[in-house]
Specification:
With 334 residues, chain A is of the alpha/beta class. Helix content of chain A is 41%, strand content 20%. Chain A has helices at residues 2-35, 51-64, 80-86, 100-110, 139-146, 186-195, 211-220, 254-259, 282-291, 294-302, 310-319, 325-333; strands spanning 39-46, 67-74, 91-94, 115-123, 125-129, 136-138, 177-181, 205-208, 224-228, 237-243, 249-250, 265-272. Among the domains of chain B are: 69-233, YVTN repeat-like/Quinoprotein amine dehydrogenase (Methylamine Dehydrogenase, Chain H, 7 Propeller); 397-701, MetI-like fold. Classes of the chains: A alpha/beta (334), B alpha+beta (706).
Chain lengths: 334, 706
């Protein structure tokens, strides 16, 4: 009897404790794990065009996970590949695809290629001063305006507004002042690739750091023309339509960009250092989950860029092993 | 026992001596530290730049390994070597990977590239095209078969990507040529009406063929048609052809060992041979050309077994002996272009390592004009941040030109103003006035370059653009007006001067000058309308052929002049006021006027010091970054015009260094620019200091306080 009592006395608390522990374990641990807030700082180096978007996404990320900060260094797409290859940052924003040389450099350092995640669509836009009567340009004219080489067409070089058919009084004999982005920017590289067919810029194209600086410079000079990203129009400038192969002028509107009818369209990328077979660390995962969600894409639209179409969004999520979008909307609505 | 009166003094003295030694040691150490830091920068830059001028090399592995039995083709992928045997089996280092084909035997394969599909030519006239996944791995299971020839075996194959798919061109043993154009779903076969011994396929269906001394080029179209675009004759029969990256340069080797670069004409009307051939390997025919995927390098092999490494711009970089005298069965490179595999007829595999990271740089490419792709003539160009297939252009001349141009125009603005101010304050002002003026001017030095650049680029540049005639009128009116005001002031009756307050002299000059500026600005539109048809810029362009850029040397000259003035002024003033009083007083006592004394005595005496001031000012202007960066459009032009922009070495460094891959050619070239700036300012400043030091010694001889 005494022994039994002893046994009960000794075993009871143990058994109880074990039960409680198991209960706690089964119930609380996942809750604890869920409740452990994400914290830390993410760093991104790269495109100036994407800079504004990155900051907005960073703010939203902080709203979702209050202890997460995103540090954005936006000094040009060309700055992302060296930083990625050196391992300074886990992801870099680029407004153009990496070149073979940059990719090779990354592979040489890290042993595997980086993953390119498209996050938004952009179009290079040509701006003139708001008083300029010019409405549209053909591709060959764009090349003749900005390039020394003729790799796309064979249009004679254009020195005056009159050469473009602008015959309003006072315009025909006016010279042309050209503005563009600096060499570190993806806009520069993409314009060179797409609009000049890989040719060389004229040497008198003024290189300005920053898309808004291009627009500002064009707005201040009546003779100016310049190119920049899509999200920067001001009241001082006018967007010039580009004529497609059939001669139809196309403005960089949402529909024309998504359908690719506007010729100078490009995806904006985040390049991620992700070893094959690995999945993203939680911080990066949370960030990409946000960027590739309807909420993140709404930011894209608000910044003046064009959101990714559904299909590309889905394939980008698949590439990063994020849950498909339908689940995300459910879980976020819960 | 120690003496209570002596001991504290002695202890005190010892402490002071110790402190003195300590202080002089610390001062010496910091001095040496500064010199060491400057030297360290120089040494670092030199070390970073030196690899640019290292020789290229091609190392052949001493021990060839016997290739897997029956291997006929070898290539390198990201993850190692692959062999394809004549009976259609694919091997890697571990063993057999897959079987591509059983029945027809493999005869040839395209040069491997990570981004292009792999095409394999078969002995029944078919080709098998293997796509690659995103990581560059061939997807063997998705290989597709296409018929190129009715039955003849495929002897040579070339494949290139097009906008929507790929195009390939092949040749059979008889020289029949056929091509395939693949556009998404199906491939169209295109038969060419001409025979060819050698083929090269470029971007977007540009096909070049050679037969004897005849070089023909063709344009393949997606709709299955083919059009001849040009033909040319060479002096000696062509024995090898290769396109370089981007397909705008063709390398042609001939039977006499000659190697020549052909460029696509700027108007796209066929091909044009470079005037001078590359240094030849020997007299024997060139047998094989292998274009390496990066840096516009290629390997050339001649019939005597000589092997050479060439670069499109800098020419021959290396020459040596091939591992075997007989021609290789396959010669292929990896996607980075620094490992080459050579499979000999006897079945031995040689591994060649190409070490030429900066082959595109030579003294000639840096400093001499070059004919680049797409240009009709020789040019000095800087476009080092080339992306994609664009040809990088590494001439430092436009940048050096821009640097010197900006500095020269800045000096044109700064020297008269700063020297005038220095002469005035050193020779004409009272000590009290000088004590107020000098710190005020020197305070200008504290203005950050960014602020000056910002104001110049975003406020002054648009203003000058809109009021160009007025601005130019100011440059004429202000100096003339100052002289006229001074003359008028002299003419005024002396009693007026007596009535005015002492500051009257200044007011007497400034008020009329301000009025004059206002008048010049407001009258100039009428003058412009009257003389230049209302638009000075259009007139300049039509009559004088001068272009006007909004951000130009005029703006940078004014802005940088402003930044240089304090340095110039304070050094020149020091030199002038250091001239011993006895000299000037002697001259005045002998009856010379103040102006005569200034011109004949004070200025000549201080001339070396003024020269030193100008040199140090120029050194500052050459190294200035932010003002040039913001006030010019950074256009690497080579015109002396005041109305066109420029790009300086320092601004170029600031713009491009963040994007340059560390250790790459572009990066090292930027550091070469930095080294040039460093050496220039170092030499100029050292010279200037030597001049100043000798001047001080000379003054001391006259008994002045130095």
């Amino acid at each position: 009897m005494k022994a039994l009592m002893n046994a009960i006395r000794t075993s009871r608390p143990g058994a109880l404790g074990r039960c409680v522990a198991v209960l706690l374990g089964t119930l609380l641990l996942p809750m604890l794990a869920m409740a452990t807030p994400l914290s830390g700082t993410l760093g991104s180096i790269g495109s100036d065009t994407l800079g504004g978007l990155m900051i907005q996404w960073g703010e939203r990320l902080t709203a979702r996970h209050p202890q997460v900060r995103l540090q954005v260094q936006a000094s040009g797409s060309g700055t992302a590949p060296p930083a990625l290859a050196e391992g300074v940052t886990r992801f870099g924003a680029m407004s153009r695809p990496m070149t073979e040389a940059e990719r090779g450099e990354f592979i040489a350092r890290q042993g595997y290629p980086p993953v390119a995640v498209p996050v938004a669509l952009d179009a290079l836009t040509l701006f003139v001063h708001r008083d300029n009567p010019l409405d549209s340009l053909s591709r060959a004219q764009v090349e003749a305006l900005f390039a020394d080489t003729r790799f796309c067409g064979h249009a004679p070089s254009i020195e005056r507004w009159g050469d473009l058919g602008v015959d309003a009084p006072g315009w025909a004999s006016r010279g042309i002042v050209r503005f563009g982005r600096n060499t570190a920017s993806g806009s520069h590289a993409l314009f060179k690739q797409e609009a000049l067919c890989g040719g060389d810029f004229r040497r008198d194209v003024n290189e300005v750091p920053g898309s808004s600086a291009v627009v500002a410079a064009v707005g201040r000079s009546r003779e100016a023309i310049g190119y920049a990203g899509l999200g920067y129009p001001t009241a001082m400038v006018k967007v010039v339509a580009l004529r497609d192969d059939r001669g139809t002028p196309r403005l960089p509107t949402h529909d024309n960009v998504v359908s690719g009818r506007y010729p100078l369209t490009r995806p904006l990328y985040l390049y991620v250092n992700l070893a094959p077979g690995e999945s993203l660390p939680p911080l990066e995962r949370a960030f990409f989950d946000l960027v590739l969600s309807p909420e993140g894409q709404a930011v894209v639209a608000r910044q003046g860029f064009v959101p990714l179409p559904e299909s590309r969004l889905a394939s980008a999520r698949r590439a990063l092993r994020l849950p498909p979008l339908a689940d995300v909307t459910q879980s976020s609505s819960n | 026992m120690t003496d209570p009166f002596v001991s504290p003094q002695r202890a005190n003295r010892r402490a002071r001596q110790r402190l003195d030694r300590l202080a002089s040691g610390a001062i010496a150490a910091s001095g040496i530290g500064v010199v060491a830091a400057v030297l360290a920068i120089g040494v670092y830059l030199t070390l970073a730049v030196l690899p640019l001028f290292e020789d290229a090399s091609v190392e052949v592995d001493a021990e060839p390994s016997p290739a897997t039995s029956g291997a006929s083709i070898v290539w390198l992928a990201e993850d190692g070597e692959y062999w394809l045997s004549a009976n259609g089996r694919v091997f890697d280092a571990q063993g057999e990977v897959t079987t591509l084909t059983d029945e027809p035997r493999v005869t040839t394969v395209t040069e491997a590239s990570e981004t292009l599909p792999l095409a394999v030519g078969l002995d029944n006239g078919e080709v098998s095209v293997v796509p690659r996944d995103a990581r560059g791995q061939p997807r063997w299971s998705q290989a597709t078969r296409w018929r190129l020839f009715a039955s003849a075996p495929v002897a040579a194959l070339h494949l290139q990507s097009t906008t929507h798919g790929w195009a390939l061109a092949g040749r059979d043993a008889d020289g029949q040529v056929a091509a395939l154009w693949h556009d998404g779903g199906t491939a169209r076969r295109i038969a060419l009406p001409d025979r060819a011994e050698h083929l090269a396929l470029g971007r977007e269906g540009h096909l070049v063929m050679s037969q004897g001394t005849r070089l023909t080029s063709w344009k393949l179209s997606p709709d299955g048609s083919v059009a001849p675009s040009a033909r040319a004759e060479t002096a000696a029969p062509i024995t090898a052809l290769a396109f370089l990256q981007g397909s705008r340069t063709l390398v042609v080797g001939d039977a006499e060992g000659g190697l020549r670069r052909w460029r696509q004409r700027p108007d796209d009307q066929g091909w044009q041979a470079a005037e001078t051939p590359y240094a030849a390997l020997g007299e024997a025919p060139v047998r094989r050309l292998l274009a390496l995927p990066r840096q516009r390098l290629w390997l050339a092999l001649d019939a005597d077994g000589r092997l050479g490494l060439y670069q499109a711009m800098s020419g021959q970089r290396w020459q040596g002996v091939a591992p075997e005298a007989s021609l290789p069965v396959t010669l292929s490179s990896d996607a980075r272009g620094n490992r080459v595999r050579w499979l000999s007829e006897t079945g031995r595999l040689y591994r060649l390592a190409v070490e030429a990271p900066h082959a595109a740089v030579s003294t000639a490419t840096l400093w001499m004009p070059q004919t680049y792709e797409g240009y009709a003539s020789d040019e000095w160009r800087w476009a080092a941040a080339a992306s994609g297939d664009a040809e990088p252009k590494y001439s430092l001349v436009p940048l050096a030109w821009g640097t010197l141009k900006a500095a020269a125009w800045a000096m044109v603005f700064a020297v008269p103003l700063a020297l005038g101010a220095a002469v005035h304050s050193a020779c004409y002002m009272s000590t009290r006035q000088r004590a107020r003026l000098k710190p005020a001017i020197e305070l200008m030095e504290a203005l950050p370059g960014v602020v000056i650049g910002f104001v110049a680029g975003l406020l002054v540049a648009p203003f000058v653009e809109q009021h160009l005639a007025g601005t130019l009128a100011l440059f004429i009116c202000v100096p003339l007006g100052s002289v006229a005001c001074g003359w008028l002031w002299r003419r005024l009756p002396a009693r007026w001067e007596a009535r005015l307050p002492p500051v009257g002299v200044g007011v007497g000059l400034i008020v009329p000058l301000a009025l004059l500026c206002w008048a010049a600005l407001s009258v100039s539109p009428w003058l412009e309308a009257w003389w230049f048809g209302g638009d000075l810029r259009a007139w300049m362009q039509q009559t004088l052929g001068w272009d006007y850029a909004q951000r130009n040397a005029l703006i940078v000259g004014m802005a940088m002049g402003l930044a240089v003035i304090p340095t110039l002024y304070s050094l020149a003033e020091e030199a002038l006021s250091g001239v011993p009083r006895s000299l000037a007083e002697g001259s005045l006592a002998l009856g010379a006027t103040r102006a005569q004394t200034l011109w004949r005595v004070q200025l000549p005496a201080a001339a070396p010091g003024i020269l030193a001031a100008v040199m140090i000012g120029a050194g500052r202007a050459v190294g200035e970054t932010m003002i040039v960066l913001m006030a010019t459009g950074n256009t690497p032009l080579m015109s002396p015009s005041l109305f066109e922009g420029l790009r300086s070495l320092a601004a170029n460094l600031a713009i491009e260094l963040p994007e340059a891959a560390v250790g790459g050619t572009h990066y090292r070239l930027l550091l070469l620019g930095a080294l040039l700036l460093f050496v220039f300012t170092f030499v100029v400043n050292t010279l200037a200091e030597v001049v100043r030091w000798r001047l001080k010694r000379r003054y001391r001889r006259y008994g002045a306080r130095a």
